[in-house]
Amino acid sequence: MKKSKRFKWECRIPSVSKFLRIMRLTSLLLVLSTLGVLANKTYSQSNISLTMENTTVKAVLVEIENQSGYNFMYSGNIIDVKRKISIDIIGDINSVLKSLFAGTDINYTINDRIILLSRDRDFQQGEIIVKGKVTDVTDHTLPGVTILLKGTNNGTITDAYGSYTFKVPADASLVFSFIGMKSQEIAVEGRTSIDVVLEEESKGLDEVVIVGYGTQKKGSVIGSVDRIEPAQLKQPTRTISTSLAGRLAGVISVQSSGEPGYDGATFWIRGVNTFTGSQTPLVLVDGIERNLDNVDPEEIADFTILKDATATAVYGVRGANGVVLITTKKGTVSAPKINLKIETGLTSPIDLPDFVDGPTYMILQNEALLNEGQTPVYSQSRIDNTIAGTDPYYYPNVNWMDALMKDYNVSQRVNLNISGGSERVQYFISGSFLKQDGMYKSFKVYNYDNNINYKRYNFRSNVDVNLTKTTLMSLNLSSILTDGHTPGHGSESIFGVILKSPPTAFPLQLPDKTKQPGTEGLVSPFSWLAASGYNDYYRTLNQSNISALQDLSFIVQGLKAKVTFSYDTYTSANVAMLMNPRRYMIVPWGYDEDGNPILKNEDGEYNHVDQNPSSDAYDDYLVRSASSPYTDRSVYLEGSLIYNRTFNKHDFGGLLLFNRSNTVFPSSSGVYESVPKRYQGVTGRTSYTYDKKYFIEFNCGYNGSENFAKGHRYGFFPALAIGWVPTEENFMASLKPVIDYMKIRLSYGKVGNDQIGSVSGVSRFAYLTRVEASGRGVSFGTDGNGYGSGTGVNITYFGSDDASWETANKADLGLELNFKNGIGLQTDLFYEKRTDIWTGLSKIADIFGLAGKIPGGNVGEMENKGIDGFISYLKRINNDLSVNVKGTFTFAKNKVKANGAETPEKEYQSQISQPYGRSLGYVAEHLFVDQAEIDNCPDQSYLGTVHPGDIKYKDIDKNGVIDAFDRIYIGHPNIPEMTYGLGANVNYKDFDFSFLFQGAARVSFYAKPQAFTDVQLGNVWAFTVDNRWTKENQNIYADIPRLGVGSQNNNFVNSTHWLRDGSYLRLKQLEVGYSLPKKILNAVHILGARFYVNGVNLFTWSPFKWWDPEAQSINGMQYPPQKVINMGLEVKF
Amino acid sequence: MKMHKYLLLTGLLLSFAACSDYLDQVPEEKLSEEALFKSKDDAVSVLTQAYESFETIHRWHYETPGFAADALDIIWNNYDPYRKDVGEFGPSTPIYSIWGKCFAAIRTCTYFLDRINECQDVKLDEQTREWWKGEAYFLKAYYNYLMFSQYGPLPIIDKVYQGDELASAMEEGIARASVDETVNYIDSLCVEAMNRLDNPYALPERVGRANKSAAAFLRARLALYAASPLYNGMVNPTTAKNYSGILSLKNDKGEELMNSEFSAEKWGKALDYTEAAITIAQAGGFNFFMGDATYTGAKAYKRLFTYPLGGEPNKECIFFKRNLTTSDIIQHCLPTNWGSWTGFCPTLEHLGEYFMANGLMTGDDANYQNATGFTTYQKDGYTIHLYNKFKMRDPRFYTNILFPEQYSYAVLFGENESYDTKWGGDADKSRIFYLPYVDGPAGYNSKTGRNFSSNGILCLKYVAYNATAASHGAYTINIFRYTELLLNQMEAAFEYDVAKGIDPLTDNKIFDPWNMIRDRIGMQHVKDAYANAGIPLTIDKLRTLIHTERRVELAFEGHRFHDNRRWLDAEREGGDKHGFDIMKNFDDGFWNEIAFETRYWDDKVYFMPIPQWEIDKNPKMTQNPRY
Q: CA-CA distance, A281 to B202, in Å (whole number)?
């Protein structure tokens, strides 16, 4: 299989110092290559000085390597390196080599830093020189491709431009091979020019896919897994969590914010399976539990999700919610490949709420007050003056959204990575920079910037060293630095203040710009954003793994051992410098005879009046707000034995693995919070395949965590799967012309979830009764400090000795089909029953004195079932055009089966049998027509005073009173039950085009555009104007009921009136690229260059129109998800 | 071979799996339940925890309904008083929800009593141990009483349910006891407490702790409640309306828990217990505060609520929550232009309850009935308008109420204003008047956010005379104030006389304490006032006078809600509530007495609903009437 078996290259072992030098050179390269200087030119200029007597050729080669940085490659069978020689020469590499091999039949070829030695025999009968170029399907030239004369050990490799020259018999066959590419055999047939296109080896059943703690051949995987082509993850967003929905069968996700640094999506594999514990999957980066959001997409080689019990049982107590496996890139044996990618993007909010202008606001406020039987507060003259814009400081009219938000802002990304290596050492090094600005306008009222700014630096170095023929050492180092800058207040708070502030509340700025607008009780949005100080945060994440893989075939054929050690550290600290300026408003100097306000005095100045002169609660200068840094550190150790062997038609596989981890929290306070988190366990896998037809696999994890009591810590989680490939059967042969491949899989098993939720505020050590100080504090004694004063001590939590993990029982039935015409299909039916869900025993009545600290029990149960799958179509139509389409579909529907709570009086209010995330609400009928209808309908006073134009609700229990018993479960859950996607990549000549549509359905949320949360408070959405009930237009089906003031509880309780269908379809991603023709590139020594434009979240279709549905905002007032349009350049050297 | 090293290493790693100590991470040496009663210092902290909830009495937002009722409008729509006024509550969304909190505190008390004998610390002397037990019994009684006054009869939980006992109690459920059983149970706890507690007035270390007088006080108040119409006969003595059908409350077996049979002896018991409590309190050094050299008259009365630490020199503080700072009631009382939240708004209905300076009720005083317009006078360069209905009133009117243009309580009452007479003026700055006209400095147009007086009136009972805009001062809430015992005695003696057919006018047990109360503030005795006015003191008139005296004297001290109920007179909480028109200016209609709101009423509001979840969780629990 491996090329190296047939063609034994014997590589020089670089000494340690040599190794270091390579490392140093590569870093130099990093610098030089960015300057566009090609590295090999630098090498050939350095002189080599040799003075050696009676030594072997081998020793001379070592010396040359030491002095020059070149590496020799040769076959020991062909080249006699033990020959004794003497040499004394100074010169460049060419002259030295010429001298060294003078008089021998040894020929040398310099390819970059590799010098290939071969026997130069005289032209024999029928030999010709073949030249050519090797490229990949996208026309990128491939350096370092091995070209072998079939049936011999003779070979050469392509140079940095993918070109080769080879002297061969005219009737020979050449074998072109390259790691990751399909080998090709080409008969020379007398041609002297042969260009070869190598295809990627990723297709087919021999492709190696990542599974839990190892790899398997795709053909033998019988767990439910799906993976994304890493190229598709390169969406121009900060985090890849937003790129998963629609691309992976089984992933459901929700992104709720677009704020730089906080724009990650929450995602679930096959939906939600528990209602208290962690619902999100275990994410492993290079085998270690790590955060997904900070991995740079350019560093990812593979992204795989594990869905069913077979695939996840090896993770035992941690695998119940599915597992995400991310593998970072490694170097390959080749000359250094340099990849540079530069992107600049424009970001803009998908949707921002549109509010009414000042005069409309005032008219509507008056209307609302009249509706409440109150006196209007805005006089006609004030409204008229506002319309006329008489004085923007005294009659303000500010559209806060327009005034404070930018239309778009700029983001930047740069990635440079270099990979390559020799048979001995392979490396991948990468550096990335990401910069995103927020959507706030920069006002520069003070010297600091009030806009959000986010910068991230990712560095990675992955090095693999073949220590011996059988030993592979790997070291992965990654460092992620984040520098963030935000205004003094968080976006939630800023949007909250805007929501409160009517357009007429404040001028944007006062005539005297050193004074900030605001009243004592209401701060101006401008001041809250631009004059609140700032918060700089600094986060450092260091990740490292070192591992050794030892082939033990010398003991038992097919046995390997692997040891991995890793440690990660994270620190986060911030410098918050906050201010809260004194608040001023413009007040008339007096009134003229007509009663009009005198706004300017003789000097033309306004009267700025301090709104709360007696208070000293303001800070007109920056105040350092103290905060202590956070830090944690985790250490992980893993040892495993891996066995893979094939005897005839029997394939055996096995894995035995031990691991443990320890995470410490030195910055935590509190006895329980400071305890390290630990787990350890043993994992096993055995698999057997007969004739690539019948599969059986057993996986198990036995592990435990520190979170539970002795005796309840360790759990055993087994899973069994069987598979069958009917297309391998003779009796199916007739189908072969249509169906290329078919596999049926069935699995059942148990997996655990130790991330149980918190009960009575306690999330760790649920088994331990806690005795702690708590409460408001009491004072005794004449001075208030007498004996017993202070905070009392009590049992704050009642532990349950047998608290334990959740158990997931998962079943999966899968079908894989590949049709001859290029269509592939994979689909899985799944069923999961989660038991032992840790939940509060809320059925304990409060009379027993446990209110607020009820104990928990593993009594919850939930069921989840559904289907997921994808259809793909992959076709290379001709040399110019290839198409790759993938459509995914996920449907998961869950039900709570038991929850530890009491049975409610009205059974229809029981959560049992309801999907998680579905809510209780009233059923709105229409708006009340008139007082007569109110008087004749069920009494609604439980919800507050009701007037005509208010929402009328259905009396579910028909008792003549609308109260809490009239709420039923309404709508869909707030997490989509259905997610789907359709994406395609099309390559045509030098152009490429790709897109992804992604959608979600069967999801509901409440949208409540409630204006006038109080008199002169609360903005009004523009759509209110045309869609409201008024006394003049009594539309009882209007979107917006009678305008009112205050809590308006009757109209704004959760009801079907405000429940909205949250389904949507997005053009999630669109990209067009153009690769420059290689002719042009060759002239400037560049392997490939591609320009592209792409966009994210470009269009959204949804039945919900008020604001973007995905974030499920109740009023649209939050930092919205962003639309991105990006331009980029990708260059390969 | 070196390969063996790797093998060895792998083997070594795998062998770690055997050692489970790796997961033993929680330190053993933390505070645990076992160790909790080892030392005196830890044991006392459990008792401290049991005290933690007693301040409930001043948490008017969510916990005690006593403050608002019909005397006050509390404007904020997220607080329970507002929700009660509009009827926005029910079993699923209860208000003033102290159910779980009080049962949790009761559990702590029982737990403490169960375990305090374990404490072998030599520092804990037996006397102190007994006191502590007494305190725990008292607190247990007190929390049960708090719930009784809100929810009516209770399930009696007298032990710490754990393990199997808890499981079977959950399975079977625990039913509500009858009113009598509940009262007797709480009474027995009071007796347990009285038997153990000391009775200090000013023992420095024990100030603020429960004492024998507090236990006797609670016993007396409970007996008064138990004798009152709601729990005794269920007939309003004035209107003769019978509530026994309306407020019928049954247990799971269908047995009636309320008392529709009247028992005169319950009034006798209330009188006995009250007199006993007075005797015990006096023995402990507590007494009626007539004033001292600095504080006399109305100032002595005011002092009871504005002395931040409570206790000495205030002999009336038998049990109290002290040193409450400005963040609470005061902050919600003062005008907006004092940097406050402005929303404790006494109704005109309550203002009408304050007597006239001549000792008559406003309804009995012709001057008041005929009063219109203003008296205008000059003061410190200002023109002051005095609303004539606010002239010559009960001095407590001026200590409790902040009405528009109030300048000085003293000048209105004809006192010498040489000392600090401003309700809140600052001697160093220009004086601040309370001007809540729509364009005034404390008016609606200057309001901040949702903070404003809904009717132009504010409550300033807890605001000290020396408060300033920047420093509002601190205050004490009396949970048990001596004067209440006097009022209880008056009421019990009166009702007992009436029940037994004795002429109350001859009963000194009614008029001696009454005269003391009126003497402190310098107001005419009732008998004299009514004799002067020539109005006869009938039974009904006397009852109204006793109730009114109580409503005025104990205004804003957490009684009104409960008194309305036990007198079967709570219907007054619904309907129109009056105030001034805050959307107007002085001369265009502010002073019109308008109904600023119409409140919800249903007879179910006599009791707060038992939380629905308790009905659902406890198979024997029954809901209060009409919910």
A: 63
